[in-house]
Structures are given as structure tokens and as C-alpha cells.
Amino acid sequence: MNDFTGNISPFAIDVADGVLADLRRRAAATRWPDEPDAGPWAYGTDAAVLRALVAYWAGGFDWRREEARLNQWPQFRVELDGVRVHFVHLRGRGPSPVPIVLTHGWPGTFVELLPLAERLADPARFGADPAAAFDVVVPSLPGFGFSELPAGASISRLDVARLWRRLMVDALGYPAFVAHGGDIGAGITSILGHAHGDVVRGIHLTAVRDPYLGSETPPLSPRERTYQAEAACWADEEGAYAHVHATRPQTLAYALTDSPAGLAGWIVEKFRVWSDCGGDVGRRFTADELLTTLTIYWATGTINSSMRYYAEARRRPWTIGPGDRVTVPTAVAMFPYDLKHPPREWAERFYDVRRWTEMPRGGHFPAHEEPDLLAVDLREFVGGVQM
Fold this sequence. Notes:
Layout: E1 8-10, H1 17-28, H2 47-59, H3 63-70, E2 75-80, E3 83-90, E4 98-103, H4 114-121, E5 134-139, H5 157-171, E6 177-181, H6 184-195, E7 200-205, H7 222-238, H8 240-247, H9 249-258, H10 260-273, H11 287-300, H12 303-315, E8 326-334, H13 344-348, E9 351-358, H14 366-369, H15 371-382
Parallel strand pairs: 4-5, 4-6, 6-7, 7-8, 8-9
Antiparallel strand pairs: 1-2, 2-3, 3-5
């Protein structure tokens, strides 16, 4: 196992009773703001939806039931370069499972990826060929949930890609693996393909990074120019959260760390706007599912460290030059209600795109929203990758 010297320990979630009692007390004592008479969601998170969710959080939501459900998954923690990383390791049920690491984004947690993980690890249970099984590793990003950061520390996507290599190769002993990710996880997965191609055999993404566009590059196609205009419009209409995260996350963190309603208001809006829910977040996420994610952020106190990923991307960006490319085979699955929708030629400027799938439905959280579609796309792509 190379130079790995750390210890992998079984892990079980166990939130202290006092943390839960304090959460319920704070939720019940929420001081609510007024709401303009402009219609639901017109100025942000709808008051009626949030009041009902927070009332349930205070008096009906059973975290212990959700905790017991999550603890049925094989979870572990390992220290890598001073960072204690939490992960699920689900062994594949098939003759020769392919190792894969799945990386979530914001405002997700490892829980978002579990519906996909079970379909990849046990394909026969879902009507697929057992020969297409994966050994699935689902880490929590450092500073999210049960993966810890040293006090006051920040971490970049480049750092996480290096840690994932350590996790997969040094700690778990896989000589080679494939990777999947969306949102922040897509950036980390892209770095794995770019900087760690000696051990990464292929990457599967639901978002792509912008390519290098120097004067020596081919001119943009009409579809690429349209995409740039659409992306700029999206940033103007929806990108305020990212700008705050990238510039003043600490200022926002005081409110979100202190108020359950504040935390829920900031995150639930994203689950509504970014998912294929037709404006009704409950169509895709039950109250229990939303509150499980929110309770993980709350109980671990990691909303601040999760938001700092945006600041670190601004301070320590992953820059690429005219000769840079991801040379490992790459697949991209585009979901219609995800944040951005670049054309294939945009991605091909930087990636070796072998598969491009325009999905019929789904949004920013496809491992939860459409795990069957995503699992099929992954199986078919990886089936053609030389391990």
C-alpha cells in the first residue's frame, strides 16, 4: 500500500443528545422576518414552506431514525495528511468490481450519493448485469459533515484530489480507479483526471470546467457563444450565493451557524431552484430528506468550512494553459435542470470526451433525483474503459 501509515477505523454517526435538544430549542424559538406581498419564492425562500419545515424540525423530525438508517451503510474514517476523512465503502457484488470514487458538491453531503452507490455496487438488484458491479467509495468532502478539517483550516479542490488519490490507492489499495462527480465534485474529479491520470482510468461528470480560451484557440462556435451569454445571465440571476461564499463566507457563517431557520432558508432554496421539481421542492425531496442533510450540517458545524471552498477556489484557483488537457476518457451527463448547459464542443476543448448524454429529466442532484439514469450512464461508459 505504498507509503500509507494511517489507520482506517469503522465509523458510526452518533450526534449528542444535547446538540439535538439545542437544535430543537433554537428552531422552536425562531424570530421570523416579514415577507413582501409578491408571491411565494419571489424574493427568496418562501416563508410558509420554511415555517412548516422548521416546525417539523423542532417537533416531529426523528433524527435518531435517520441516524440508524445511515449507520446501516459501511462507514469509516481515516487520517490522510492530517485530515480525518469520512467515507462509505460499499463492496461490489459481481465477479470483478471496478473501483470508483463518487464526490458530492454543495449543498450536498455524502447522503446525496447513496442511491447511486447502491445501484453501482449491486447492479443485479436493480435489473442490471452483475459483471457491471463497482466497489464504491463515497467520501465526505473535508469540512463537510463527518470529514474534519484542522481548526481554522481551508482546503482547495487541488488538495482534495490529492487526498482522494491517497484514499483510493494508498489507504484502500486500489492500483487504479475511475471517478464521478458533480458541482464541486466535478471540479475535483476533473483534477483527478488531469493531474492523476497515472491511476485514474476515466472520469464521469455532470458539469465541466471552462476551457482555456487564449487568442491561439479556435473561435467559439455559435452554440458556445450562446452558452457564454446564458451562463452570464445565470450568474446575474442566481449567482449571489457563490459570490458571497467566495468573498465573505465568514460574515454569512455567523447567521447560518447560529440559526436553524437561517441554515434551512439558505440551503432549501437551492434544492428547489436547482432540482427538477417544477417549483415544488417536495416533489423531489421529502421533509425528512431535507432535514437529514440540514442536521448533518448543523450537528457538525460545517456550513462555514463548506462555504469556504468557494473562497479557496478564488484564492487558489486551478489554472490551465493552452496545452493543458484531460487525456483520460471522459463522459459527461447533462441534466436539463442543472445549473449550466454547455455544448459538447465547449467540453471537448479541455476533455477527451468519449460519451455525451443529454438526459431527459433531472437537475443538480441527479444521484438522488435520477439514480437509475445516472447508474446506467456510468455503467455503459466504464464498460468501455480499459482498467
